[in-house]
Amino acid sequence: MIVSTAEMQAAECRLFTTGVEAETLMDEAGARCAKAIIQFFPKRGRLTLFCGRGNNGGDTYVIGTRLKKQGWFVETVESHASTELTPLSQKKRIEFLSQTSNTDFHANSHHVVVDGLLGIGSNGPLRGKIGDLAGEINSIRKNEHATVFAVDLPSGVGQKNGVTADFTLSICEFKLELVADDAVDQVGRLVKIPLPELSTAIKKFGPEQVANSKVLRAWLSPRDFGKHKGSTGRVVIIAGSRGMTGAAVLAGLGALHGGAGLVTIFAEESIYPIVAASAPPEIMVRPTSDFSEVTEFNADVLAIGPGLGPAKRDDILNLILNDPRPAVVDADGLNWLAESESIPKFTHPRLLTPHPGEMSRLFGDFRNLTRDEIATEFSKRTGASILLKGSRSVIANSDETAPLTYNSTGHPGMATGGIGDVLTGLSAALIARKLSPARAAIVGSWLVGRAAEIAIFEDGESAESLSAVMIANRLGRAFRSLKSGDF
Questions:
Q1: Which residue pairs from 4-8 have beta carbons closer than 8 angstroms and sit at least 24 positions apart in sequence?
Q2: What integer best gives the mean pLDDT of the chain?
Q3: Mean pLDDT throughout 71-86?
Q4: What is the distance between the alpha carbons of residues 274 and 435, in angstroms, rounded to a whole number?
Q5: What is the pLDDT averaged over residues 454-482?
Q6: What residue segments make up the domains of the chain, in order of their start?
Q7: What is the Cα–Cα distance from 349 to 118, expressed in whole angstroms?
Q8: 234 strand-pairing partners
Q9: Of 26, 134, 293, 406, which alpha carbon lies 20 to 30 A from 239's?
Q10: Hey, which CATH number is domain 2-206, 3.10.180.10, 3.40.50.10260, 3.40.720.10, 3.40.50.2000?
Q11: What is the pLDDT of residues 121-177, one digit of tens each?
Q12: Comparing C-alpha atoms, which of 22, 172, 181, 17 is closest to residue 89?
């Protein structure tokens, strides 16, 4: 769940009055932060700690101690003299200095920077030495392509001179500041560092939540041994047009690697030879001149829209509006809805997956609304679940009692074509295994983002090289990561 920084501080005070020691929490938080860093950088490298005088700096010293023990070369940049630190931070600094750092590392090893300058109690523009050090962190990130992990909150989040983090290790629970629309570039990938004992002391949570693998994995039931292709979900994909046949294939890959037992692409006769030749052999491709025949086709879920082009077809639009089976509607399927005189309130299960441009055509002017407000309002209007895509995708449930959810995974390398097509097919496959449309969107978003991370951090791809096919081909490992409860 999501909390305010004020409530987080109040919870800490309540817990400490019960006799729990701050040092115990610091050691636990620091150790789990180190574990998170190792998940993304399993090979040892160079670590630079930027340590403040408070307990945020203490957490950072614990991280450094842990990674020293893992063989990392660790160096520190400190904002204050050791005599100015809080007593607990002083103690953790001494423990850090007593641990020998590995100096035998390759000069081209990855460079990780930890921002531990300020914690949740700070606000306003950064000044003095702290401001200078924040600028130094940003300079290292830019000039050396270092990866920045912020502890709890990036120092100066929301301020022009604040730290730009690639990852934010949010201790105990996610903070409201981390999901603000204008904080995405400063916050980066969200990672929850669990402290269950502290969570129990929180009295007031916000109504929203951030996707967390330890919750999401419970939604995926293990397959019974007697399952067969007909009982693991039949997905029909209606996608592709002249010049955009790849969209159909990518959606098919998403469904195939998302666990659907049978995947069928319905393609216009004019593009059928191209789609059939491009699709993996496991995917069936059927030519058609009349998509109304899908009404009688044996399918559990429909995925409609990727690459259909601007020429609206009434037979496909009728499926979007009236077919009783659950449907994922994306891309040109959404654009066709936007061109209609009015967008209906759906009576059948629908997941609409617009990116911001498509949402502007569907919703109209929303300059004065936040992304969570847009998704929530449009879900109320249409009765559909809404996946508003972006670097922090937002999922609103047509069931108003369910919380709005922010996705946590992903990488800037996903700013390339075709990934939304993969997500459409994947979401359909997840619905076919009996997840609700909203839950399918939440799990699908997490998996696609995690697959991108695996390609980058484990397989040596870069932001520039990442492609939709790479992500589709790593969905299996993303599923394993989800089931393992990875960050």
A1: 4/175, 4/176, 4/204, 4/206, 5/120, 5/121, 5/153, 5/175, 5/176, 5/177, 7/202, 7/203, 7/204, 8/120, 8/172, 8/173, 8/175, 8/202
A2: 96
A3: 96
A4: 32
A5: 98
A6: 2-206, 217-484
A7: 46
A8: 262
A9: 406
A10: 3.40.50.10260
A11: 778 899 999 999 999 999 999 999 999 999 999 999 999 999 999 999 999 999 999
A12: 22
State which amino acid sits at residue 81: A
What is the pLDDT averaged over residues 399-420?
93
Superfamily of domain 217-484: Ribokinase (3.40.1190.20)
Q: 3-class DSSP state for residue 475?
A: helix
Distance CA 105, CA 94 (A): 24
Residues 105/44, Cβ–Cβ less than 8 Å: yes
Residues near 348 by beta carbon (within 8 Å), at least 6 away in sequence? 322, 323, 324, 325, 326, 327
Residue 351 phi, psi dihedral angles, 5° rounding: -120, 115
pLDDT digits (tens, 9 = 90+) for 218-232: 999 999 999 999 999
User: What's residue 107's pLDDT?
Assistant: 65
Amino acid symbol at 307? G
H or E stretch at 88: helix 87-98
Q: CA 394, CA 366: separation in Å to the nearest integer?
A: 15
